[in-house]
Amino acid sequence: MAELLSPAGDINSMYAAFAGGADAVYAGADEFSARAYSANFDTEGMIKAIDYAHLLGKKLYLTFNILLKEKELERVHLFLEPFYRAGLDGCIVQDLGAVSLIRRDFPGMEVHGSTQLSVANVYGAKFCESQGMKRVVTARELSLKEIRNIRENTDIELEAFIHGAMCYSYSGYCLFSSFLGGRSGNRGRCAGPCRQPYRAGKAEERYLLSMKDMCTLDILPGILEAGVASLKIEGRMKAPEYVYGVTAIYRKYLDQYYRDPEKYYVNPKDLDKLVNLYSRGGLSHGYYEKHNGADMVTYEKGAYKTGYEKTVVPKPLKVRLSGECVLREGEPVVLKVISGKAGVTVTGDIVQRAKKTAMNPKDIEERLRKTGDTDFEFEELKVVTEGEIFIPNGALNALRRETLNKMKEELLSVYRRSL
Fold first, then answer.
1. 297 neighbors 207 (Cβ within 8 angstroms)
2. Closest C-alpha to 82, from 149, 5, 30, 130
3. Going by C-beta distance under 8 Å and a sequence separation of 6 or more, which residues neighbour residue 376?
């Protein structure tokens, strides 16, 4: 099954992506990202994001997708090391020097070739494969036929954009922003001059370079059948409402396709939702079915139309636990929790004999279920008591905290790396 990959410009967008059904997110840190004006993550925030993704059994890829200067290469190792140790799933990279360095210093982590590499044919894909890259993000200008040809003639995984903003220039080659104002798109600082009005000849000013947004919902089967392994939604600078709404719709139709490809059908109401979630002058299929065309350009003002405030983002997903707490008079209280194949058992304070009224199992259960702002919640919790027992609420709180902390360590231990 293909991966659904969503943008995470900040922690709330990451929560929104996973709530919407994303299998993975891509996010930038406060350095080396092609979205310098996105909120991005500091080191502590990125590790928190990596851990959260892994607790849910999902993935996080770091966008390390700018061209580096010579003096920056020496910082790459120190920058990436904490993320590598935390279990970062992969780096999306543009700079070939950085690829070589990452493969040398961090061999346990995947390297993905960014769309900024402009991989547009079999030869480019094979070169990326020869450099040790696990995956390449195809240039947005490729047709389904061209993507299928790469898939049939290489072993490298293919990732492709399925929704969001389109650039007028060829992927990775635009120097327009740099030429006009010294803000390079290849350094993550594109000023978006293509979104401004221009005049051709004596005609009035129009938005001649402003592309409509891509939407591939109704050609999704063709993209999957061309061999794309990861379906990428653009939008690291967009709101959590956008991330959740777009992700949820594509999740719905990706699942529909895998249930029965022959019955794939897109409800027009869902296309309308995508238009309202953000669209610049309308939607198009991008280059998947055509080489180019005037109907891919907005011409009118390139501002976003949005009705995303109507979209309610659910609360962040939590890891669901099954648990059992056993309280026997004169013995330590025991709490055992399980999630999937992982589990921990923790003992707490000695259970006392009640001096007055014995504690009710339901009251104990209610206390233990108060997981608050942790990453966990109890799906099932059984409380077993024997005798006229009593234990302070503080002891139950401490037991719950210790158990959840150990469960988190247990779940994340399989992702941790050392150098």
1. yes
2. 30
3. 318, 319, 320, 321, 404, 407, 408
Residue carrying structure tokens 């480019």: 124
What is 355-409 written as a DSSP string?
Answer: SSSPPPHHHHHHHHT--TTSSEEEEEEEEEEESSEE--HHHHHHHHHHHHHHHHH
CA-CA distance, 129 to 71, in Å (whole number)? 27
Q: Which helix (H) or strand (E) holds 343?
A: strand 342-350
Euclidean distance between the first and the last CA atom of the chain, given in angstroms as a whole number: 32
H/E element, 347: strand 342-350
3 state SS for 228-258: CCEEEECCCCCCHHHHHHHHHHHHHHHHHHH
| Residue whose entry in the numeric block shows the structure tokens 């659910």 | 314
Question: Is residue 54 within 8 Å of residue 412, measured between CB atoms?
Answer: yes
Find out whether 154 and 146 touch, Cβ atoms under 8 Å. no
Report d(CA 190, CA 181) in Å as an integer.
9
Q: How many other CB atoms sit within 10 Å of the CB of residue 311?
A: 21
How is the chain split into domains, by residue range?
Answer: 3-310, 319-413
Do the beta carbons of residue 386 and residue 329 sit within 8 Å? Answer: yes
Query: β-strands 24-27, 3-7: how paired?
Result: parallel
> How far is it, in rounded angstroms, from Cα 99 to Cα 28?
17
Give me the pLDDT at residue 226, please. Answer: 98
Question: Which of 206, 171, 213, 205 is closest to 190 using CA atoms?
Answer: 171
pLDDT, tens digit, for every residue of 398-411? 999 999 999 999 99
| Superfamily in which the 3-310 domain is placed by CATH | Aldolase class I (3.20.20.70)
Q: Is the pTM of this model over 0.90?
A: yes
List of residues 6+ apart from 146 with CB closer than 8 A: 120, 121
Which of 65, 59, 61 has its CA nearest to residue 26?
61
Among residues 237, 265, 174, which one has the least CA distance to residue 35?
237
Q: Quick: pLDDT tens for 335-384.
A: 999 999 999 999 999 999 998 888 999 999 999 999 999 999 999 999 99
> CB within 8 A of 190, min separation 6: which ones?
174, 177, 183, 184
Q: Judging by beta carbons within 10 Å of its beta carbon (0-12, 13-18, 19+), is residue 245 exposed, middle or buried?
A: buried
